[in-house]
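Help needed: design a sequence for this.
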């Protein structure tokens, strides 16, 4: 299986009710039956498409090999915030600019 370049996976920062923050790499997310489902877009062979351990969340009719599959599923009731991480944070790099000083 090959991860598709569009959309590129992003690190989503999911803040839970208890203050914990999860970092999830996924191309897209949506709400399904009371859960946030995070998915990655990939090109899969027929054998990979029918793997029972793979949860396919979408397909692209114009590109039969292209699928979306779930990488995380979190109950909506457990989440307080979802945001895309800044690239520097997502890659574990330190920011090069300092925040402005308070007057």
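Sure. Designed sequence:
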């Amino acid at each position: 299986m090959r991860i598709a370049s569009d959309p590129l996976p992003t690190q989503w920062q999911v803040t839970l009710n208890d203050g914990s923050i999860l970092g999830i790499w996924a191309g897209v997310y949506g709400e399904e039956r009371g859960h946030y489902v995070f998915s990655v877009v990939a090109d899969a062979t027929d054998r990979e498409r029918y793997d029972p351990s793979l949860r396919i969340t979408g397909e692209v009719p114009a590109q039969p090999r292209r699928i979306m599959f779930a990488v995380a599923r979190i109950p909506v009731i457990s989440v307080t915030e979802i945001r895309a991480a800044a690239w520097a944070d997502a890659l574990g790099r330190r920011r090069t600019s300092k925040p402005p000083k308070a007057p």
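Confidence is low (pLDDT under 50) at residues 94-103.
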